[in-house]
Task: inverse folding
């Protein structure tokens, strides 16, 4: 019976050591996984910051684009109005030249009569 107890005691000790070794391996593995997770969390935080910075940059570019489009539309409208004014002035000038020519003809006729 003592032999059986000794045998069981040895088996128990071997199981205990095996358990401790398994626990040590598990702890090492868990530490490595925790370290990897921490690295990934740091990388995720960096990517979130980068994403925020990109969103701000995109919004800034959108504002500039919108302002540029608005300014271009205003300039285009001003050019259209200026072209309309120019056409009206040209028409008015043509009418004035026609009147001047008519008056010059009348003057010549009046001078010839005299």
Result:
């Amino acid at each position: 019976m003592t032999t059986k107890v000794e045998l069981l005691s040895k088996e128990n000790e071997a199981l205990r050591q095996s358990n401790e070794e398994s626990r040590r391996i598990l702890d090492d593995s868990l530490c490595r996984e925790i370290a990897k997770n921490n690295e990934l969390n740091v990388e995720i935080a960096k990517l979130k910051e980068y994403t925020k910075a990109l969103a701000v940059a995109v919004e800034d570019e959108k504002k500039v684009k919108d302002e540029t489009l608005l300014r271009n539309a205003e300039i285009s409208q001003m050019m259209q109005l200026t072209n309309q004014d120019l056409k009206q002035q040209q028409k008015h000038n043509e009418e004035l030249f026609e009147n001047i020519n008519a008056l010059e003809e009348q003057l010549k006729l009046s001078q010839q009569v005299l």
Q: What stands out?
A: The chain has a mean pLDDT of 95. The helical segments are 2-113.
